[in-house]
């Protein structure tokens, strides 16, 4: 005899409804076995796999342009080691750069690059006065996907020698999200830009994707880069918006794909446009392809004994770092490059850091070392 779920009215009486009830009970059982008390708890866990939601926090004290994450853990992986050359491929506002230079007075050469000229300007200001350090600091505008070519042009001897330490700090910085004119935020209205390199006036923008790409292509990036389950529906919404003049601003896009951000008991829910914004930004800047290229190049730029640290902010990035590091640690190639994983699982922020800087909650760091042979 088939029994319907106690939550279904017996007057409905269809086999389909009974099956739905049984599925609901089975799903609840599975969730409990996996440690979730409810479907909401499982959803919250899933949301943690998306890039951290930069929700404006009311009552917060005014921040510095950008607060670097996992600084203590980053420095610990170079503690007690001689670091004479260091390469920061995403120097940003100079947060990690300042700390590593201060922690290693033996540092002779620090090289920093960034694709964002606005961030580079802040880094120059931050690193202009480094008391107690004799390091030569070289900062320049570049995309890390071209690091070997750019380094060869600027300092071929240093490239040949290799670096004792290299850092890749991925994702968005606070200063980029908090600038409406950059188009990264779904809370602040501005042009739908999303270019990391603001000097690339002819570069692809999120506005061009929304107003010119096909529904199939938009759906693909929503599915692959945003891991958005509603990708087909949202792609159609974006294309249909062209009938009303198209999508020009971040407010337009947030309204089309997310509607109103629900408050009340759903106040803590992630903004419904979060995955769409992430997907478009990744597509505009070709981030995942650039990351794959950068890890391969950075690992080959290490000196024997040198360490490469990568900080990621969402599951797509971390997955690439994890598997490329694993592959590197298993391969001994013809030029005697061999590596050892120093982090079997990603390093994350502790409770104290999260309390001071909520934007570090999704940060994960992995570190690999080139072996001396």
UniProtKB/TrEMBL annotation:
<dbReference type="InterPro" id="IPR029063">
    <property type="entry name" value="SAM-dependent_MTases_sf"/>
</dbReference>
<dbReference type="InterPro" id="IPR023397">
    <property type="entry name" value="SAM-dep_MeTrfase_MraW_recog"/>
</dbReference>
<keyword id="KW-0808">Transferase</keyword>
<dbReference type="GO" id="GO:0070475">
    <property type="term" value="P:rRNA base methylation"/>
</dbReference>
<dbReference type="GO" id="GO:0071424">
    <property type="term" value="F:rRNA (cytosine-N4-)-methyltransferase activity"/>
</dbReference>
<keyword id="KW-0489">Methyltransferase</keyword>
<dbReference type="InterPro" id="IPR002903">
    <property type="entry name" value="RsmH"/>
</dbReference>
<protein>
    <submittedName>
        <fullName>Uncharacterized protein</fullName>
    </submittedName>
</protein>
<comment type="similarity">
    <text>Belongs to the methyltransferase superfamily. RsmH family.</text>
</comment>
<dbReference type="Pfam" id="PF01795">
    <property type="entry name" value="Methyltransf_5"/>
</dbReference>
<keyword id="KW-0949">S-adenosyl-L-methionine</keyword>
């Amino acid at each position: 005899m088939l029994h319907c779920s106690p939550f279904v009215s017996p007057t409905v009486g269809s086999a389909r409804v009974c099956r739905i009830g049984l599925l609901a009970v089975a799903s609840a059982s599975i969730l409990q076995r996996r440690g979730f008390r409810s479907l909401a708890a499982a959803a919250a866990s899933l949301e943690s796999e998306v890039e951290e939601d930069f929700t404006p926090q009311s009552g917060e004290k005014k921040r510095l342009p950008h607060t670097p994450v996992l600084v203590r853990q980053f420095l610990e992986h170079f503690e007690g080691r001689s670091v004479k050359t260091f390469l920061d491929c995403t120097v940003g506002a100079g947060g990690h750069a300042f700390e590593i230079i201060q922690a290693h007075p033996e540092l002779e050469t620090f090289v920093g690059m960034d694709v964002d000229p606005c961030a580079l300007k802040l880094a120059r200001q931050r690193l202009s006065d480094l008391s107690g350090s004799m390091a030569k600091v070289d900062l320049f505008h570049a995309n890390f996907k071209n690091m070997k070519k750019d380094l060869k042009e600027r300092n071929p001897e240093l490239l040949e020698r290799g670096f004792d330490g290299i850092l890749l700090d991925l994702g968005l910085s606070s200063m980029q999200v908090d600038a409406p004119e950059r188009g990264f935020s779904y809370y602040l209205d501005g042009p739908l830009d999303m270019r990391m390199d603001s000097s690339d006036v002819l570069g692809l923008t999120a506005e061009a994707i929304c107003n010119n790409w096909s529904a199939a292509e938009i759906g693909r990036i929503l599915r692959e880069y945003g891991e958005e389950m509603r990708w087909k529906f949202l792609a159609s919404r974006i294309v249909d918006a062209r009938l009303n003049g198209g999508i020009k601003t971040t407010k337009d896009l947030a309204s089309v794909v997310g509607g109103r951000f629900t408050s009340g008991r759903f106040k803590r829910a992630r903004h419904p446009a979060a995955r769409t914004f992430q997907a478009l930004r990744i597509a505009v800047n070709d981030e995942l392809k650039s990351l794959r290229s950068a890890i391969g190049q950075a690992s080959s730029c290490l000196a024997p004994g040198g360490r490469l640290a990568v900080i990621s902010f969402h599951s797509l990035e971390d997955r690439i770092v994890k598997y490329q590091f694993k592959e590197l640690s298993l391969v001994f190639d013809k030029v005697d490059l061999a590596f050892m994983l120093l982090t079997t699982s990603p390093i994350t922020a502790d409770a104290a850091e999260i309390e001071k800087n909520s934007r570090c909650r999704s940060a994960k760091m992995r570190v690999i070392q080139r072996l001396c042979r």
